[in-house]
Amino acid sequence: MPARSPLWEEPMAYYVLLSNFTDQGIKTIRDTQKRAEAFKAMASKSGIKVHTLLWTLGQYDVVAIAEADDDIAATALALSIASLGNIRTQTLRAFDTADMAKIMAKMA
Questions:
Q1: CATH number, domain at 25?
Q2: What's the pLDDT tens digit per position in 68-87?
Q3: 8-26 pLDDT, tens per residue?
Q4: Is there a domain that residue 4 lies in?
Q5: Coil, strand, or helix at residue 16?
Q6: Stated pTM of the model
């Protein structure tokens, strides 16, 4: 059987990961860039594409936008990074314009 064409692949879902440093993460803040690279590598090994990772001012310390196959993959990544003890995460499922068009088409 031939390999599936990329045209037939299921689209990946977008996720926004909102993170706050823990006390441990603040104590080791000078390692934050190394941890960001490790996060990207961990995501890549899981088949997740990190589009951007930003340090922010305000309610959250770090925001990442990623694409994953499904909620399970995204949740596994969020739990994996949180288990290291440097951040607490909140993961939001996000929708692009194409997704919103499908959602609007299904509205009653």
A1: 3.30.70.920
A2: 999 999 999 999 999 999 99
A3: 566 799 999 999 999 999 9
A4: no
A5: strand
A6: 0.85
